[in-house]
Amino acid sequence: MKLHELRELIKLVNQSSIEELEWEKGKERIVIKKSEPAAVSATPLPVQTDEVDQGYQQAAATTETATLAVEKEQETPAPEKTPQLVLSTSVGLFYAQVKVGQTIKADDVIGRCTVDALQLSSDIVSTANGVVAEMLVQDGQLVDYGKPLLVVKPQ
């Protein structure tokens, strides 16, 4: 494995919720573990308010979407009429194979997650039938397990 591939792999593990990754190919074996959090120093660090605000906004939007989805499911007797989220079943860089307005069926391939350093890729399939109403992830964006990728509006 080349150094730049190893660096990319470490970066992907660091940015994801994975605590440990073990990879073996032939005689090569790599184990990457996240370390315990370091002790906090007494010196205050400068806070980048834009990143903090953006993080809060994303968390609030995710919570609000989840709350609205739960409320709509409770109110609506026919759950097949509510928009459904298609979630990531893999970790890596996501590349969509569908567009907004496209009709899809359950088990259709909607995109692919790749980890170039490991030469791994996996297809992401739809769990819903309908029309793609909104793409929640941009092409080339790092996704984690369970991250919402797109919204499907049933027909």
Automatic annotation (TrEMBL):
<dbReference type="InterPro" id="IPR000089">
    <property type="entry name" value="Biotin_lipoyl"/>
</dbReference>
<dbReference type="Pfam" id="PF00364">
    <property type="entry name" value="Biotin_lipoyl"/>
</dbReference>
<dbReference type="InterPro" id="IPR011053">
    <property type="entry name" value="Single_hybrid_motif"/>
</dbReference>
<protein>
    <submittedName>
        <fullName>Acetyl-CoA carboxylase, biotin carboxyl carrier protein</fullName>
    </submittedName>
</protein>
<feature type="domain" description="Lipoyl-binding">
    <location>
        <begin position="93"/>
        <end position="151"/>
    </location>
</feature>
